[in-house]
Known about the structure:
- The structure is a single chain.
- By secondary structure, this protein is mostly helical.
- The protein contains 4 helices and no strands.
- It has a domain at 1-38.
- The chain is elongated and about 60 Å long.
- The chain starts with 9 loop residues before the first helix and ends in an 11-residue tail after the last helix.
Amino acid sequence: MSQITLYLDDETAARMKAAAEAEGLSQSKWVVKLIHQRTTTEWPPSVASLAGAWGDLPDPESVLEDGDVPDVQRESL
């Protein structure tokens, strides 16, 4: 297990201590929780469950088939 040393000004240290206490965590566990939240590589289940939730949105093919809206001129690459 790695250890790090943080140098915090008094105000930041007090805010961290208050936030950790409010969540019932030690300051170390609070920092670990924050790092996990900020470095996650997957969507949380609450967001992933929204996939396909908007069934009334048209699929791209039907939008292009409508012909009501002209396609915009594309820049060449």
